[in-house]
Amino acid sequence: FIGRIWSHVFNKSILGFKSLNLCFWDGNSLLALDFSLHLEKGKNKSKPQGMKPKHIKERYEKKRSSKSPGYNRVKELTVSKIKMSIKMIKKAINNGITARYVLVDSWFCCEEIIRFVYSIEKMDLICRAKMGKSKYLFKDKNMTAKELLARYKYRKDTRKYSRKLKTNYLLFKVQYKGIPVKLLFIQTGRNKWILILTTELKASAIKIVETYQIRWTIEVFFKQAKQLLGLGKCQANDFDA
After folding, report:
1. How far, CA to CA in Å, does 231 sit from each of 16, 105, 215, 227?
2. pLDDT for residue 9 is more than 90
């Protein structure tokens, strides 16, 4: 099932799979709970997974028992990473592992994830959000994040300065697709702002930033897994390897 995937590290397509991981932070250690592997089908139907037909035929194949772990891994290959993320969190909760927050980057900031976490009692989402086309309801007006920022970033009654964060910020209570959320705009440069979204309506700007910073530990986990465990360097032909 090997194919081409887009690598943000090398900024080009390479042979491999995408690894989706769920980890748990207990305040001291990051514990790896679950993972799945995913392929990218690609937009060109004549070259599935970015592969030429002759290379597709050359790939190693074998039959797997429906009771084998490899069979289940193969079924996950084409499932969307959003659906698998929700499945992993549900699995963790069903096994008695609960958390106060779900932390994800902007790629996972979508209605499906927001609505799912919002539906779980005593759990909130904190994630980076894109300055995209998504509309937020604020003061009976639907506005994009860019429109909100442009309208209020120079107003003294909305723009605030944090000594601890050493920057300006804006904090709004809005609705997204009927879900009450908070939007935190943080200034990172002269004309640069980043956006963080949370379902915790009582959280302060500092609380949101300090909690979201914990997400960086999963990036350290990826680095250590690559350096110490050789993650991503497997040269085996068999997918089950």
Report:
1. 11, 21, 20, 8
2. no
